[in-house]
Write a structure and sequence with these properties.
six-stranded antiparallel beta sheet; Beta-Lactamase; five-stranded parallel beta sheet; Arc Repressor Mutant, subunit A; 643 residues; alpha+beta; Rossmann fold
Length: 643
Protein backbone atom coordinates (compact mmCIF):
# COMPACT_ATOMS: atom_id res chain seq x y z
CA UNK A 1 0.00 0.00 0.00
CA UNK A 2 1.44 3.40 -1.01
CA UNK A 3 2.42 5.74 1.76
CA UNK A 4 -0.03 8.56 2.31
CA UNK A 5 1.34 12.05 1.44
CA UNK A 6 1.96 14.34 4.38
CA UNK A 7 0.32 17.76 4.53
CA UNK A 8 1.62 20.37 6.98
CA UNK A 9 -1.20 22.56 8.32
CA UNK A 10 0.08 25.92 9.67
CA UNK A 11 -2.51 28.03 11.54
CA UNK A 12 -2.61 29.74 14.92
CA UNK A 13 -6.23 28.70 15.63
CA UNK A 14 -6.43 25.19 17.18
CA UNK A 15 -10.12 24.72 16.28
CA UNK A 16 -9.41 25.42 12.64
CA UNK A 17 -6.39 23.12 12.61
CA UNK A 18 -8.56 20.31 14.00
CA UNK A 19 -11.19 20.77 11.29
CA UNK A 20 -8.56 20.84 8.52
CA UNK A 21 -6.83 17.78 10.01
CA UNK A 22 -10.08 15.79 10.08
CA UNK A 23 -11.00 16.77 6.51
CA UNK A 24 -7.55 15.93 5.13
CA UNK A 25 -7.36 12.65 7.01
CA UNK A 26 -10.76 11.72 5.59
CA UNK A 27 -9.33 12.57 2.19
CA UNK A 28 -6.45 10.13 2.61
CA UNK A 29 -3.64 12.40 3.81
CA UNK A 30 -1.39 12.27 6.81
CA UNK A 31 -1.42 15.60 8.67
CA UNK A 32 1.20 17.46 10.71
CA UNK A 33 0.39 20.70 12.53
CA UNK A 34 2.26 23.92 13.39
CA UNK A 35 0.86 26.81 15.45
CA UNK A 36 3.12 29.57 14.06
CA UNK A 37 5.59 30.32 11.30
CA UNK A 38 8.78 29.45 13.13
CA UNK A 39 7.42 26.08 14.20
CA UNK A 40 6.43 25.42 10.58
CA UNK A 41 9.96 26.14 9.30
CA UNK A 42 11.38 23.85 11.97
CA UNK A 43 9.09 21.01 10.90
CA UNK A 44 9.88 21.54 7.22
CA UNK A 45 13.60 21.29 7.94
CA UNK A 46 13.02 18.16 10.02
CA UNK A 47 10.67 16.31 7.67
CA UNK A 48 9.76 17.59 4.21
CA UNK A 49 5.97 17.41 3.65
CA UNK A 50 4.29 16.91 0.31
CA UNK A 51 2.31 20.16 0.62
CA UNK A 52 1.78 23.05 3.05
CA UNK A 53 -1.58 24.57 3.95
CA UNK A 54 -0.48 28.00 5.18
CA UNK A 55 -2.29 30.77 7.04
CA UNK A 56 -1.00 34.33 6.52
CA UNK A 57 -1.80 36.21 9.72
CA UNK A 58 0.11 34.42 12.45
CA UNK A 59 2.28 35.45 15.40
CA UNK A 60 6.08 35.18 15.37
CA UNK A 61 6.34 34.92 11.57
CA UNK A 62 3.54 35.56 9.08
CA UNK A 63 2.65 33.25 6.23
CA UNK A 64 4.19 35.42 3.50
CA UNK A 65 7.58 35.35 5.23
CA UNK A 66 7.27 31.58 5.68
CA UNK A 67 6.50 31.22 1.96
CA UNK A 68 9.60 33.21 0.99
CA UNK A 69 11.81 31.14 3.29
CA UNK A 70 10.40 27.84 2.04
CA UNK A 71 10.77 28.90 -1.60
CA UNK A 72 14.39 29.82 -0.95
CA UNK A 73 15.23 26.26 0.15
CA UNK A 74 12.61 23.86 -1.21
CA UNK A 75 10.19 23.31 -4.06
CA UNK A 76 7.05 22.55 -2.06
CA UNK A 77 3.48 23.18 -3.20
CA UNK A 78 1.83 25.79 -0.97
CA UNK A 79 -1.88 26.48 -0.57
CA UNK A 80 -2.69 29.70 1.26
CA UNK A 81 -5.66 29.54 3.64
CA UNK A 82 -6.31 33.07 4.90
CA UNK A 83 -9.01 35.51 5.96
CA UNK A 84 -7.44 38.22 3.76
CA UNK A 85 -9.71 38.07 0.73
CA UNK A 86 -8.76 41.25 -1.15
CA UNK A 87 -7.74 40.78 -4.76
CA UNK A 88 -4.37 42.40 -4.05
CA UNK A 89 -3.72 39.89 -1.24
CA UNK A 90 -4.58 36.96 -3.49
CA UNK A 91 -2.33 38.26 -6.25
CA UNK A 92 0.50 38.90 -3.81
CA UNK A 93 0.22 35.39 -2.40
CA UNK A 94 0.35 33.83 -5.85
CA UNK A 95 3.24 36.04 -6.98
CA UNK A 96 5.29 35.13 -3.91
CA UNK A 97 5.06 31.46 -4.85
CA UNK A 98 1.70 30.19 -3.68
CA UNK A 99 0.15 27.48 -5.84
CA UNK A 100 -3.41 28.21 -4.73
CA UNK A 101 -5.25 30.65 -2.49
CA UNK A 102 -8.39 29.85 -0.48
CA UNK A 103 -10.16 32.41 1.69
CA UNK A 104 -11.95 31.92 4.98
CA UNK A 105 -14.65 30.84 5.63
CA UNK A 106 -14.20 27.85 3.35
CA UNK A 107 -15.60 24.40 2.61
CA UNK A 108 -13.44 21.52 3.90
CA UNK A 109 -14.37 19.50 0.80
CA UNK A 110 -13.16 22.33 -1.47
CA UNK A 111 -9.90 22.52 0.47
CA UNK A 112 -9.30 18.77 0.04
CA UNK A 113 -10.11 19.03 -3.68
CA UNK A 114 -7.70 21.94 -4.17
CA UNK A 115 -4.93 20.12 -2.28
CA UNK A 116 -5.36 17.06 -4.52
CA UNK A 117 -5.37 19.25 -7.67
CA UNK A 118 -2.16 21.01 -6.64
CA UNK A 119 -0.44 17.71 -5.89
CA UNK A 120 -1.53 16.34 -9.28
CA UNK A 121 0.12 19.21 -11.07
CA UNK A 122 3.27 18.68 -9.00
CA UNK A 123 5.21 21.19 -11.04
CA UNK A 124 8.89 21.25 -10.17
CA UNK A 125 9.18 25.04 -10.17
CA UNK A 126 6.29 26.89 -8.55
CA UNK A 127 7.13 30.16 -10.25
CA UNK A 128 8.53 29.89 -13.79
CA UNK A 129 11.37 32.14 -14.80
CA UNK A 130 10.20 35.09 -16.84
CA UNK A 131 12.22 35.89 -19.89
CA UNK A 132 13.30 39.49 -20.14
CA UNK A 133 12.34 41.46 -23.22
CA UNK A 134 14.85 41.34 -26.05
CA UNK A 135 15.76 45.01 -25.98
CA UNK A 136 17.34 46.11 -22.75
CA UNK A 137 16.41 49.79 -22.67
CA UNK A 138 13.03 50.94 -23.89
CA UNK A 139 11.86 54.51 -23.65
CA UNK A 140 9.11 56.80 -24.79
CA UNK A 141 9.05 60.39 -23.68
CA UNK A 142 9.84 60.61 -19.97
CA UNK A 143 9.23 56.84 -19.49
CA UNK A 144 12.32 54.58 -19.48
CA UNK A 145 12.48 50.84 -18.75
CA UNK A 146 15.51 48.56 -18.28
CA UNK A 147 14.47 45.01 -19.22
CA UNK A 148 17.61 43.38 -17.82
CA UNK A 149 17.52 44.98 -14.40
CA UNK A 150 13.71 45.16 -14.26
CA UNK A 151 13.74 48.86 -13.40
CA UNK A 152 11.57 51.73 -14.61
CA UNK A 153 11.93 55.53 -14.41
CA UNK A 154 9.66 58.48 -14.98
CA UNK A 155 11.98 61.33 -15.95
CA UNK A 156 14.67 61.05 -13.24
CA UNK A 157 12.50 59.34 -10.62
CA UNK A 158 12.68 55.57 -10.31
CA UNK A 159 9.33 53.78 -9.98
CA UNK A 160 9.47 50.45 -8.15
CA UNK A 161 7.33 47.82 -9.91
CA UNK A 162 6.62 44.17 -9.25
CA UNK A 163 7.48 41.60 -11.92
CA UNK A 164 3.89 41.41 -13.15
CA UNK A 165 3.51 45.19 -13.22
CA UNK A 166 6.80 45.51 -15.12
CA UNK A 167 5.70 42.92 -17.70
CA UNK A 168 2.36 44.66 -18.11
CA UNK A 169 3.97 48.05 -18.73
CA UNK A 170 6.64 46.55 -21.02
CA UNK A 171 3.91 44.92 -23.10
CA UNK A 172 2.17 48.26 -23.56
CA UNK A 173 5.47 50.00 -24.31
CA UNK A 174 6.40 47.62 -27.14
CA UNK A 175 3.51 48.93 -29.26
CA UNK A 176 2.76 52.48 -28.04
CA UNK A 177 -0.73 53.59 -28.89
CA UNK A 178 -2.11 50.10 -29.54
CA UNK A 179 -5.18 49.13 -27.53
CA UNK A 180 -4.64 45.81 -25.71
CA UNK A 181 -7.68 43.90 -24.51
CA UNK A 182 -7.67 42.35 -21.06
CA UNK A 183 -7.41 38.87 -22.60
CA UNK A 184 -4.33 39.86 -24.60
CA UNK A 185 -2.65 41.29 -21.52
CA UNK A 186 -3.52 38.20 -19.45
CA UNK A 187 -2.05 35.90 -22.12
CA UNK A 188 1.18 37.89 -22.26
CA UNK A 189 1.62 38.54 -18.54
CA UNK A 190 0.29 35.25 -17.12
CA UNK A 191 1.55 32.21 -19.02
CA UNK A 192 -0.33 29.26 -17.52
CA UNK A 193 -1.95 30.81 -14.47
CA UNK A 194 -5.70 31.27 -14.68
CA UNK A 195 -6.77 34.67 -13.35
CA UNK A 196 -9.82 36.85 -13.78
CA UNK A 197 -9.84 39.82 -16.14
CA UNK A 198 -10.30 42.11 -13.13
CA UNK A 199 -6.82 41.09 -12.00
CA UNK A 200 -5.43 43.14 -14.91
CA UNK A 201 -7.53 46.10 -13.74
CA UNK A 202 -5.97 45.79 -10.30
CA UNK A 203 -2.45 45.80 -11.76
CA UNK A 204 -3.24 48.80 -13.96
CA UNK A 205 -4.61 50.68 -10.97
CA UNK A 206 -1.44 50.05 -8.96
CA UNK A 207 0.83 51.05 -11.87
CA UNK A 208 -1.13 54.30 -12.22
CA UNK A 209 -0.82 55.02 -8.51
CA UNK A 210 2.94 54.47 -8.55
CA UNK A 211 3.53 56.66 -11.59
CA UNK A 212 1.15 59.33 -10.29
CA UNK A 213 3.32 59.63 -7.20
CA UNK A 214 6.28 60.24 -9.54
CA UNK A 215 4.33 62.89 -11.47
CA UNK A 216 3.23 60.91 -14.53
CA UNK A 217 0.28 59.10 -16.11
CA UNK A 218 1.26 56.30 -18.50
CA UNK A 219 -1.80 54.08 -19.06
CA UNK A 220 -5.00 55.24 -20.73
CA UNK A 221 -8.30 53.36 -20.49
CA UNK A 222 -10.19 52.87 -23.75
CA UNK A 223 -13.70 52.17 -22.51
CA UNK A 224 -15.16 48.95 -23.84
CA UNK A 225 -11.85 47.78 -25.32
CA UNK A 226 -8.91 47.76 -22.92
CA UNK A 227 -5.75 49.75 -22.22
CA UNK A 228 -2.99 51.46 -24.15
CA UNK A 229 0.17 53.39 -23.43
CA UNK A 230 -0.60 57.03 -23.98
CA UNK A 231 2.05 59.53 -22.99
CA UNK A 232 0.71 63.04 -23.62
CA UNK A 233 3.08 65.60 -25.03
CA UNK A 234 4.56 67.51 -22.14
CA UNK A 235 4.04 71.23 -22.47
CA UNK A 236 7.30 73.04 -22.03
CA UNK A 237 7.37 74.89 -18.75
CA UNK A 238 10.09 77.33 -17.69
CA UNK A 239 12.47 76.34 -14.95
CA UNK A 240 12.58 78.32 -11.74
CA UNK A 241 15.94 79.93 -12.55
CA UNK A 242 14.55 81.14 -15.88
CA UNK A 243 11.55 82.69 -14.12
CA UNK A 244 13.83 84.52 -11.69
CA UNK A 245 16.07 85.67 -14.56
CA UNK A 246 13.05 86.91 -16.53
CA UNK A 247 11.76 88.79 -13.49
CA UNK A 248 15.20 90.32 -12.90
CA UNK A 249 15.61 91.39 -16.53
CA UNK A 250 12.04 92.73 -16.58
CA UNK A 251 12.81 94.74 -13.45
CA UNK A 252 16.00 96.05 -15.04
CA UNK A 253 14.15 97.01 -18.23
CA UNK A 254 11.36 98.59 -16.19
CA UNK A 255 13.91 100.68 -14.32
CA UNK A 256 15.40 101.92 -17.59
CA UNK A 257 11.92 102.61 -18.94
CA UNK A 258 11.10 104.53 -15.77
CA UNK A 259 14.23 106.62 -16.14
CA UNK A 260 13.30 107.35 -19.74
CA UNK A 261 9.73 108.17 -18.70
CA UNK A 262 10.77 110.76 -16.12
CA UNK A 263 13.49 112.00 -18.54
CA UNK A 264 16.23 111.94 -15.94
CA UNK A 265 18.96 111.78 -18.56
CA UNK A 266 17.33 114.54 -20.63
CA UNK A 267 17.25 116.71 -17.51
CA UNK A 268 20.97 116.20 -17.02
CA UNK A 269 21.74 117.08 -20.63
CA UNK A 270 19.65 120.26 -20.44
CA UNK A 271 21.16 121.30 -17.11
CA UNK A 272 24.63 120.59 -18.40
CA UNK A 273 24.01 122.99 -21.30
CA UNK A 274 22.44 125.53 -18.92
CA UNK A 275 25.44 125.34 -16.57
CA UNK A 276 27.83 125.91 -19.47
CA UNK A 277 25.84 128.96 -20.63
CA UNK A 278 25.68 130.37 -17.08
CA UNK A 279 29.46 130.04 -16.74
CA UNK A 280 30.10 131.70 -20.11
CA UNK A 281 27.54 134.41 -19.45
CA UNK A 282 28.98 135.26 -16.03
CA UNK A 283 32.41 135.80 -17.60
CA UNK A 284 31.02 137.90 -20.47
CA UNK A 285 28.92 140.00 -18.04
CA UNK A 286 31.97 140.66 -15.86
CA UNK A 287 34.11 141.68 -18.87
CA UNK A 288 31.35 143.97 -20.17
CA UNK A 289 30.91 145.53 -16.70
CA UNK A 290 34.65 146.22 -16.41
CA UNK A 291 34.70 147.88 -19.85
CA UNK A 292 31.75 150.08 -18.86
CA UNK A 293 33.19 150.91 -15.46
CA UNK A 294 36.20 152.47 -17.16
CA UNK A 295 34.02 154.91 -19.14
CA UNK A 296 30.95 155.51 -17.00
CA UNK A 297 31.12 158.92 -15.21
CA UNK A 298 30.31 159.46 -11.59
CA UNK A 299 26.62 159.31 -10.82
CA UNK A 300 23.68 157.09 -11.60
CA UNK A 301 23.94 154.93 -14.71
CA UNK A 302 21.59 152.26 -16.03
CA UNK A 303 18.42 151.03 -14.38
CA UNK A 304 17.58 150.46 -10.77
CA UNK A 305 17.38 146.78 -9.90
CA UNK A 306 13.76 145.90 -8.99
CA UNK A 307 13.70 142.07 -9.00
CA UNK A 308 14.85 140.00 -5.98
CA UNK A 309 17.64 137.46 -6.36
CA UNK A 310 15.90 134.12 -7.08
CA UNK A 311 18.55 131.84 -5.52
CA UNK A 312 19.64 131.41 -1.88
CA UNK A 313 22.45 133.77 -0.90
CA UNK A 314 25.06 132.34 1.51
CA UNK A 315 26.31 134.14 4.60
CA UNK A 316 29.25 135.46 2.62
CA UNK A 317 27.50 138.31 0.79
CA UNK A 318 30.29 138.46 -1.76
CA UNK A 319 28.91 135.23 -3.21
CA UNK A 320 25.92 135.35 -5.47
CA UNK A 321 25.44 131.87 -7.01
CA UNK A 322 23.40 131.25 -10.14
CA UNK A 323 22.06 127.69 -10.13
CA UNK A 324 20.76 125.66 -13.10
CA UNK A 325 17.01 125.10 -12.77
CA UNK A 326 15.67 123.87 -16.12
CA UNK A 327 13.95 120.51 -16.54
CA UNK A 328 13.03 118.61 -19.68
CA UNK A 329 9.39 118.68 -18.60
CA UNK A 330 9.27 122.50 -18.34
CA UNK A 331 7.01 124.31 -20.77
CA UNK A 332 8.95 125.70 -23.72
CA UNK A 333 8.36 129.15 -25.18
CA UNK A 334 7.67 129.71 -28.87
CA UNK A 335 10.71 130.04 -31.09
CA UNK A 336 12.09 133.55 -31.12
CA UNK A 337 11.64 135.58 -34.30
CA UNK A 338 14.66 137.04 -36.07
CA UNK A 339 15.54 140.24 -34.14
CA UNK A 340 14.50 143.37 -36.02
CA UNK A 341 16.52 146.60 -36.11
CA UNK A 342 16.01 148.82 -33.11
CA UNK A 343 14.20 152.10 -33.52
CA UNK A 344 15.94 153.39 -30.42
CA UNK A 345 19.67 154.12 -30.80
CA UNK A 346 22.03 152.22 -28.57
CA UNK A 347 23.39 153.92 -25.44
CA UNK A 348 26.77 155.39 -26.50
CA UNK A 349 28.88 154.06 -23.61
CA UNK A 350 27.40 150.57 -23.94
CA UNK A 351 27.86 150.74 -27.70
CA UNK A 352 31.52 151.61 -27.36
CA UNK A 353 32.15 148.83 -24.84
CA UNK A 354 30.20 146.37 -27.00
CA UNK A 355 32.24 147.11 -30.11
CA UNK A 356 35.39 146.24 -28.19
CA UNK A 357 33.77 142.98 -26.96
CA UNK A 358 32.36 141.71 -30.28
CA UNK A 359 35.63 140.20 -31.67
CA UNK A 360 36.07 138.32 -28.39
CA UNK A 361 32.54 136.91 -28.58
CA UNK A 362 33.17 135.71 -32.13
CA UNK A 363 36.18 133.74 -30.91
CA UNK A 364 34.19 132.29 -28.00
CA UNK A 365 31.39 131.18 -30.33
CA UNK A 366 33.88 129.39 -32.56
CA UNK A 367 34.92 127.27 -29.56
CA UNK A 368 31.62 126.82 -27.67
CA UNK A 369 29.09 127.03 -30.56
CA UNK A 370 26.89 129.20 -28.33
CA UNK A 371 25.12 132.32 -29.51
CA UNK A 372 26.07 135.31 -27.26
CA UNK A 373 24.51 138.76 -27.29
CA UNK A 374 25.00 141.74 -24.98
CA UNK A 375 22.18 144.30 -24.72
CA UNK A 376 22.07 147.72 -23.12
CA UNK A 377 19.45 148.86 -20.66
CA UNK A 378 16.90 149.30 -23.50
CA UNK A 379 17.39 145.82 -24.96
CA UNK A 380 19.47 146.93 -27.97
CA UNK A 381 22.19 144.48 -29.03
CA UNK A 382 25.54 146.25 -28.56
CA UNK A 383 27.80 143.15 -28.79
CA UNK A 384 27.18 139.81 -30.50
CA UNK A 385 28.95 136.66 -31.59
CA UNK A 386 27.15 137.26 -34.91
CA UNK A 387 27.97 140.84 -36.12
CA UNK A 388 24.88 140.82 -38.35
CA UNK A 389 22.69 141.09 -35.25
CA UNK A 390 24.28 144.31 -33.94
CA UNK A 391 21.86 147.19 -33.29
CA UNK A 392 18.84 144.88 -33.34
CA UNK A 393 16.46 144.77 -30.39
CA UNK A 394 15.61 141.92 -27.98
CA UNK A 395 13.44 144.07 -25.74
CA UNK A 396 10.29 142.13 -26.65
CA UNK A 397 11.58 138.84 -25.23
CA UNK A 398 10.43 137.79 -21.77
CA UNK A 399 13.82 136.56 -20.55
CA UNK A 400 15.49 139.84 -21.58
CA UNK A 401 12.86 141.94 -19.81
CA UNK A 402 13.33 139.95 -16.59
CA UNK A 403 17.11 140.14 -16.84
CA UNK A 404 16.97 143.95 -17.23
CA UNK A 405 15.06 144.05 -13.94
CA UNK A 406 18.02 142.33 -12.26
CA UNK A 407 16.89 138.65 -12.33
CA UNK A 408 18.95 135.86 -13.94
CA UNK A 409 16.59 133.78 -16.14
CA UNK A 410 16.83 130.40 -17.91
CA UNK A 411 14.12 129.33 -20.36
CA UNK A 412 13.49 126.71 -23.02
CA UNK A 413 12.46 127.82 -26.48
CA UNK A 414 11.22 125.63 -29.25
CA UNK A 415 13.56 125.31 -32.17
CA UNK A 416 12.71 124.75 -35.79
CA UNK A 417 14.95 121.74 -36.48
CA UNK A 418 16.53 120.89 -39.81
CA UNK A 419 14.22 118.40 -41.58
CA UNK A 420 17.19 116.37 -42.78
CA UNK A 421 18.46 113.61 -40.51
CA UNK A 422 21.68 114.47 -38.80
CA UNK A 423 24.29 111.72 -38.34
CA UNK A 424 24.86 110.71 -34.73
CA UNK A 425 28.57 111.45 -35.01
CA UNK A 426 28.06 115.03 -36.32
CA UNK A 427 28.44 118.18 -34.22
CA UNK A 428 24.97 119.39 -35.14
CA UNK A 429 22.30 118.89 -32.51
CA UNK A 430 18.92 118.26 -34.10
CA UNK A 431 16.85 118.54 -30.94
CA UNK A 432 13.62 120.51 -30.98
CA UNK A 433 14.43 122.88 -28.09
CA UNK A 434 17.03 125.51 -27.33
CA UNK A 435 18.31 126.62 -23.92
CA UNK A 436 18.35 130.39 -23.41
CA UNK A 437 20.06 132.05 -20.44
CA UNK A 438 19.74 135.79 -19.74
CA UNK A 439 22.03 137.24 -17.03
CA UNK A 440 21.89 140.85 -15.78
CA UNK A 441 25.06 142.99 -15.74
CA UNK A 442 24.93 144.35 -12.19
CA UNK A 443 26.86 147.14 -10.56
CA UNK A 444 25.64 147.29 -7.01
CA UNK A 445 21.90 147.87 -7.19
CA UNK A 446 22.04 149.14 -10.75
CA UNK A 447 21.48 147.13 -13.93
CA UNK A 448 23.88 148.17 -16.74
CA UNK A 449 22.63 145.69 -19.31
CA UNK A 450 22.21 141.95 -19.87
CA UNK A 451 23.96 139.01 -21.52
CA UNK A 452 21.77 136.60 -23.54
CA UNK A 453 23.18 133.17 -24.45
CA UNK A 454 21.54 130.37 -26.47
CA UNK A 455 22.64 126.80 -27.20
CA UNK A 456 20.96 123.60 -28.37
CA UNK A 457 21.38 120.84 -25.74
CA UNK A 458 22.81 117.42 -26.57
CA UNK A 459 20.15 114.94 -27.65
CA UNK A 460 19.66 111.67 -25.80
CA UNK A 461 20.58 109.66 -28.90
CA UNK A 462 23.80 111.59 -29.50
CA UNK A 463 24.80 111.42 -25.83
CA UNK A 464 24.19 107.68 -25.80
CA UNK A 465 26.13 107.23 -29.03
CA UNK A 466 29.02 109.28 -27.73
CA UNK A 467 29.23 107.12 -24.60
CA UNK A 468 28.17 103.88 -26.27
CA UNK A 469 31.13 101.75 -25.21
CA UNK A 470 30.91 102.66 -21.54
CA UNK A 471 27.15 102.22 -21.57
CA UNK A 472 27.46 98.84 -23.31
CA UNK A 473 30.02 97.63 -20.78
CA UNK A 474 27.88 98.91 -17.92
CA UNK A 475 24.81 97.20 -19.38
CA UNK A 476 26.60 93.87 -19.64
CA UNK A 477 27.86 94.20 -16.08
CA UNK A 478 24.36 94.99 -14.81
CA UNK A 479 22.83 92.15 -16.82
CA UNK A 480 25.48 89.80 -15.45
CA UNK A 481 24.71 90.97 -11.93
CA UNK A 482 20.98 90.45 -12.53
CA UNK A 483 21.67 86.97 -13.92
CA UNK A 484 23.87 86.04 -10.96
CA UNK A 485 21.30 87.33 -8.47
CA UNK A 486 18.56 85.43 -10.31
CA UNK A 487 20.59 82.23 -10.28
CA UNK A 488 21.39 82.70 -6.60
CA UNK A 489 17.72 83.29 -5.78
CA UNK A 490 16.73 80.28 -7.88
CA UNK A 491 19.32 78.15 -6.09
CA UNK A 492 18.16 79.32 -2.67
CA UNK A 493 14.51 78.66 -3.49
CA UNK A 494 14.71 76.05 -6.26
CA UNK A 495 16.79 73.51 -4.34
CA UNK A 496 14.38 73.41 -1.38
CA UNK A 497 11.42 73.27 -3.78
CA UNK A 498 12.95 70.29 -5.60
CA UNK A 499 13.61 68.71 -2.22
CA UNK A 500 9.95 69.26 -1.31
CA UNK A 501 8.84 67.64 -4.57
CA UNK A 502 11.12 64.69 -3.87
CA UNK A 503 9.75 64.50 -0.32
CA UNK A 504 6.12 64.45 -1.50
CA UNK A 505 6.92 61.71 -4.02
CA UNK A 506 8.68 59.72 -1.32
CA UNK A 507 5.62 60.16 0.91
CA UNK A 508 3.35 58.96 -1.90
CA UNK A 509 5.55 55.86 -2.32
CA UNK A 510 5.79 55.30 1.46
CA UNK A 511 9.55 55.79 1.29
CA UNK A 512 10.93 56.38 4.82
CA UNK A 513 12.97 59.34 3.56
CA UNK A 514 9.75 61.26 2.94
CA UNK A 515 8.82 61.23 6.61
CA UNK A 516 11.84 63.32 7.63
CA UNK A 517 12.03 67.13 7.15
CA UNK A 518 14.50 68.17 4.49
CA UNK A 519 17.97 69.20 5.57
CA UNK A 520 19.15 72.83 5.24
CA UNK A 521 16.00 74.34 3.69
CA UNK A 522 17.50 77.91 3.84
CA UNK A 523 14.07 79.60 3.68
CA UNK A 524 12.04 79.58 6.90
CA UNK A 525 8.68 79.16 5.16
CA UNK A 526 9.93 76.19 3.14
CA UNK A 527 11.38 74.64 6.30
CA UNK A 528 8.01 75.01 8.01
CA UNK A 529 6.25 73.53 4.97
CA UNK A 530 8.63 70.55 4.93
CA UNK A 531 8.11 69.93 8.63
CA UNK A 532 4.34 70.16 8.17
CA UNK A 533 4.48 67.69 5.27
CA UNK A 534 6.58 65.28 7.29
CA UNK A 535 4.25 65.57 10.27
CA UNK A 536 1.15 65.13 8.12
CA UNK A 537 2.69 62.14 6.34
CA UNK A 538 3.65 60.53 9.64
CA UNK A 539 0.16 61.05 11.03
CA UNK A 540 -1.46 59.67 7.87
CA UNK A 541 0.93 56.72 7.80
CA UNK A 542 0.21 55.89 11.43
CA UNK A 543 -3.50 56.28 10.86
CA UNK A 544 -3.35 54.15 7.72
CA UNK A 545 -1.33 51.47 9.47
CA UNK A 546 -3.77 51.52 12.35
CA UNK A 547 -6.76 51.15 10.02
CA UNK A 548 -5.06 48.44 7.96
CA UNK A 549 -3.97 46.51 11.02
CA UNK A 550 -7.35 46.97 12.68
CA UNK A 551 -9.25 45.80 9.59
CA UNK A 552 -6.95 42.82 9.07
CA UNK A 553 -7.15 41.75 12.71
CA UNK A 554 -10.91 42.18 12.90
CA UNK A 555 -11.31 40.25 9.65
CA UNK A 556 -9.06 37.51 10.97
CA UNK A 557 -10.84 37.37 14.32
CA UNK A 558 -14.22 37.08 12.61
CA UNK A 559 -13.33 34.72 9.79
CA UNK A 560 -11.32 32.24 11.84
CA UNK A 561 -14.18 31.24 14.20
CA UNK A 562 -16.64 31.44 11.29
CA UNK A 563 -14.45 29.07 9.29
CA UNK A 564 -14.20 26.78 12.30
CA UNK A 565 -17.98 26.78 12.82
CA UNK A 566 -18.73 26.29 9.13
CA UNK A 567 -16.19 23.48 8.81
CA UNK A 568 -17.44 21.73 11.95
CA UNK A 569 -21.05 21.94 10.78
CA UNK A 570 -20.13 20.56 7.35
CA UNK A 571 -18.14 17.71 8.87
CA UNK A 572 -20.90 16.90 11.36
CA UNK A 573 -23.45 16.87 8.56
CA UNK A 574 -21.43 14.79 6.11
CA UNK A 575 -19.24 12.59 8.34
CA UNK A 576 -21.08 12.30 11.65
CA UNK A 577 -21.30 8.51 11.39
CA UNK A 578 -17.52 8.20 10.94
CA UNK A 579 -16.81 10.19 14.09
CA UNK A 580 -16.31 8.79 17.55
CA UNK A 581 -18.72 10.15 20.17
CA UNK A 582 -15.95 12.02 21.98
CA UNK A 583 -14.75 13.54 18.69
CA UNK A 584 -18.29 14.67 17.85
CA UNK A 585 -18.65 16.17 21.33
CA UNK A 586 -15.34 18.01 20.89
CA UNK A 587 -16.49 19.53 17.59
CA UNK A 588 -19.75 20.69 19.21
CA UNK A 589 -17.80 22.21 22.11
CA UNK A 590 -15.57 24.02 19.60
CA UNK A 591 -18.64 25.41 17.85
CA UNK A 592 -20.02 26.66 21.16
CA UNK A 593 -16.67 28.25 22.13
CA UNK A 594 -16.34 29.95 18.75
CA UNK A 595 -19.90 31.31 19.03
CA UNK A 596 -19.13 32.81 22.45
CA UNK A 597 -15.91 34.22 21.01
CA UNK A 598 -17.85 35.97 18.24
CA UNK A 599 -20.31 37.36 20.79
CA UNK A 600 -17.48 38.86 22.85
CA UNK A 601 -15.86 40.27 19.72
CA UNK A 602 -19.06 42.00 18.63
CA UNK A 603 -19.51 43.46 22.12
CA UNK A 604 -15.92 44.81 22.12
CA UNK A 605 -16.39 46.34 18.68
CA UNK A 606 -19.51 48.16 19.85
CA UNK A 607 -17.62 49.51 22.85
CA UNK A 608 -14.74 50.61 20.62
CA UNK A 609 -17.15 52.36 18.24
CA UNK A 610 -18.72 54.26 21.13
CA UNK A 611 -15.28 55.24 22.42
CA UNK A 612 -14.13 56.48 19.00
CA UNK A 613 -17.30 58.53 18.53
CA UNK A 614 -16.84 60.39 21.80
CA UNK A 615 -15.30 63.86 21.75
CA UNK A 616 -12.42 64.31 24.16
CA UNK A 617 -13.16 67.04 26.72
CA UNK A 618 -11.29 68.05 29.87
CA UNK A 619 -12.66 66.19 32.88
CA UNK A 620 -11.65 65.16 36.40
CA UNK A 621 -11.95 61.61 37.70
CA UNK A 622 -11.49 60.45 41.28
CA UNK A 623 -9.19 57.43 41.13
CA UNK A 624 -9.59 56.50 44.80
CA UNK A 625 -12.96 54.76 44.53
CA UNK A 626 -11.80 52.96 41.39
CA UNK A 627 -8.66 51.61 43.04
CA UNK A 628 -10.22 50.57 46.35
CA UNK A 629 -11.25 47.16 45.08
CA UNK A 630 -8.17 46.58 42.94
CA UNK A 631 -5.98 44.76 45.55
CA UNK A 632 -8.70 42.18 46.13
CA UNK A 633 -9.02 41.34 42.44
CA UNK A 634 -7.58 37.85 41.78
CA UNK A 635 -5.67 38.92 38.69
CA UNK A 636 -3.96 41.73 40.59
CA UNK A 637 -3.19 39.87 43.82
CA UNK A 638 0.54 39.82 44.56
CA UNK A 639 1.67 37.09 46.95
CA UNK A 640 3.59 38.31 49.95
CA UNK A 641 7.06 36.90 50.43
CA UNK A 642 9.24 37.15 53.45
CA UNK A 643 12.58 38.84 53.08
Amino acid sequence: MAERPTVLVVDDDPHLREIVRFALEQGGFRVDEAADGRAALTQVDRALPALIVLDIMMPELDGLAVCREVRRKHELPIVFLSSRDDEVDRILGLELGGDDYLTKPFSPRELVARVKAVLRRARPAPVPEVEAPAARMQSRGPLRMDAERWRAWWQDTEVVLTVTEFQLLATLLRVPGKVFTRDELMNRVYDDVVVSDRTIDSHVRRVRQKFASAGGDVIETVHGLGYRLALPERRARPRLWLVFAAVGIAGFALTLAGLAFVRVYDNQLIRQTESELIAQGAVVAEVFRERLRATVPEGAYGRERTAPWPFPIPDDTRLRPILPSLRASDASLPPGDTPRPSRVPAEPLSQAAGLQLTPLLEQVRAATLAGIRVVDTEGVVVASSSPALLWTTLADRTEVQRALRGEPVSVLRRRVADPEDTPLASLSRDTGIRVTVALPVLEGDRVWGAVVLTRTPMTFAKATYADRWNLTATGFVLLGAVALMSLAAAALVGRPVRALVKQTRAIAMSDPSGFEPMARPVVAELAELSESLAGMATALRDRNQYIRSFAANVSHEFKTPLASIQGAVELLRDSADAMAPEQRARFLANVDADARRLTRLVQRLLELARADSMTATPAQVELGPLLEGSPSAPALTVPRTST
